[in-house]
């Protein structure tokens, strides 16, 4: 009989198994260290393993990580705050605030020349931005084969770990110079929606995105270490980011805590992938979502807004991959058994792109590029039973690792990471049987 650590239902046996698997990635040199956090019914279990850099100080519970696309749900919450305050509506055209995107032209076909366009049937709306159906986004075809892919790269929006480094107004102007890939509302394309949403929120709110997030989300939730940069006083708690050298297959430093791009405020506060955070900070955000928009005495969103955000918005015809997409960017997740880098089939569950990660990087518990960027089998099937998230499951999770989906995640309120999106939040939820 499984021994339970407390009335919350956490299994000490399974937590030990989680530790063994995660520690194995550190021991194998796939990563310097990590932090895992599991929260259930008010009980929090934290495990700290390894170091913040291969030659660095020991990992700490309050180590700061680049959380990459875990930024997206935070940005979506900010947008919904403005909706609740009637400053913008979900189906309002964004032309009023983003005139650079008015009167769009749309490619006749995805492989058409850039000037082979038709008029957009309607304006882009806030709902389009939140659900990634605005007509812009990443085309998961590698290597690039369409003229629009080359134009996207030349505009500074090529898929990859390097963020746009130009001011917000310039970002929207550059998007406005490109034709839409699809008609607004017709198809799902990844990522661009929240980059543009970053600018929209700032313009509607009349302040910077960072200040709005700090005032309306981070401060009320006590997320003291979550921001778009790390001040000098916290550099000693900031993990080093590594990338795989494709020539040598060795890990090398991608972003240094002291001299890297997060060491000073960015020119563009990237609401798509630009935040840093800690396991406990993001646990607070996740618990707020799990509680229906409230944490303690602080209410961030109404329960109806959270329910809307966690309802799938995408039809089967609109999705280029087999997933659901919610206003808060929550995935109905179907894990691949083996991940391959740059799959040519956009409907392949195993599609993965290589991006840098911090010490403590977790991607469904698969922490080594060697696992995600080749056809080699996973070290352990247990590794696929971790979801990079904190405080997200209501009730126990049961799953056959070889089954078609994580059934227990349907009530998840913190977005699991798709395999192509290599995020770096060091928190995890154990979903073993």
Describe this structure in words.
The chain is globular. The chain has one domain: Beta-lactamase, CATH 3.40.710.10. It is of the alpha+beta class and 433 residues long. The N terminus and C terminus are likely disordered. The strands form eight sheets. Strands 7-6-15 form a three-stranded antiparallel beta sheet, with no helix packed on it.
List the topology elements.
Layout: H1 12-27, E1 33-40, E2 43-50, E3 65-66, H2 71-84, E4 105-107, E5 117-119, H3 126-130, H4 147-154, H5 168-176, H6 192-205, H7 209-221, E6 241-244, E7 251-255, E8 276-277, H8 279-290, E9 294-295, E10 298-299, H9 303-309, E11 324-325, E12 331-332, E13 340-341, E14 351-352, E15 357-358, H10 369-372, E16 386-387, E17 429-430
Helix pairs in contact: 2-6, 2-7, 5-6
Please name the defining characteristics of this protein:
alpha+beta; 17 strands; 24% helix; disordered C terminus; 433 residues
